[in-house]
Amino acid sequence: MESDQIHAWLRETNPARLTHLWRMADATRQQYVGGEVHLRGLIEFSNHCVRLCAYCGLRAPNSALTRYRMTQDEIMACVRQAVAWGYGTVVLQSGEDPQVSREWLASLVRRIKAETPLAVTLSVGERSDEDLWAWREAGADRYLLRFETSNKALYDRLHPPRPGSASDRLAMLGRLREMGYEVGSGVMIGIPGQSYRDLAADIALFRELDLDMIGVGPYLLHPNTPLGDPSFRPVAPDHDQVPADELTTYKVIALSRLVCPRANIPSTTALATLNRTNGRELGLERGANVLMPNLTPPQYRVLYEIYPNKACFQETAEGCFGCMRQRIESVGRTVGVGPGSAARGEPVQPTAAE
Ligand code: 5AD
Ligand code: FES
Questions:
Q1: What's the confidence (pLDDT) of residue 349?
Q2: Which of 201, 209, 212, 254 is the S-S candidate for 182 at Cβ 3.0 to 4.6 Å?
Q3: Which residues line ligand 2 (CB under 6 A)?
Q4: What is the distance between the alpha carbons of residues 24 and 54, in angstroms, rounded to a whole number?
């Protein structure tokens, strides 16, 4: 699919055409990754962050937020829950937190790999090659780093760099791949300043990067951020601003599936925040094949406030487990078994049924 075609789909409003897009995405998902929905247990282990991202509630200057960092023993208790509930993967996520040292995280990864059969995904921001190598050697399997937007000017506006070190997430994604990580990235949909052309280019870039995992969700406004202030907000040229809505999110999920048929694509919490009733399910029916139940203990979870009013933020880990299982069954799919690594190679199921 060419960038122009992607662009046309993003602007499509005809319901019959959109039904066709959902069907193509769902058939492609079935053909390439099958009917299993893999569960990735999300552990938000630190909300400390040194960065200044203009949209994110964890940004360093947000002094209204109480900060926490979980201990290795607290994290291991969550990991053991993941094993007990049959999850295949844990995702260790945090703000960009220098106190999460190379050795501390390496020893945690080693512990998880020694004591459990789980795949380990890291999502801890931009880090040095030395750190990334050490964690890979410790056994980390995957790394998530959204590039957020392929529009360089908009990226720079929203992500002030740390003094003395330019931010180049695309280069880091390339290095992660060379180190043997499975690589995940993605963008926010409808971030102020994002045009339809930008978003089409983002999706074309998913394919170019040949991503193993693609996470996308709507931008949600956090009042204690620069984007919470209308006078700061970038404006896309020619009234071409992408809306941060549910329909556009489904389009991006579906198009991501079509350009990267083998990728693992979650139906995300940000989407569920826009539609708590059945947003997760509609994501699963329009290209997604992964859910990320939250394992973070409730007293910390409420403090991992990337944006307000997050779906699940008052739930327990057990509540999310039951909720996810029930949602998977309600759309006639099955809970995935094992780590659910990205399928590189042939489709896992024959196409005869299509
Ligand atoms: N709305 C939606 N998504 C957000 N993220 C950060 N802040 C927001 C927000 N206000 C997303 C970013 C980041 C991921 C962890 O959460 O894409 O990479
Ligand atoms: Fe957390 Fe539904 S997944 S409440």
A1: 52
A2: 212
A3: 293-294, 312, 315, 319-320, 323-324
A4: 36
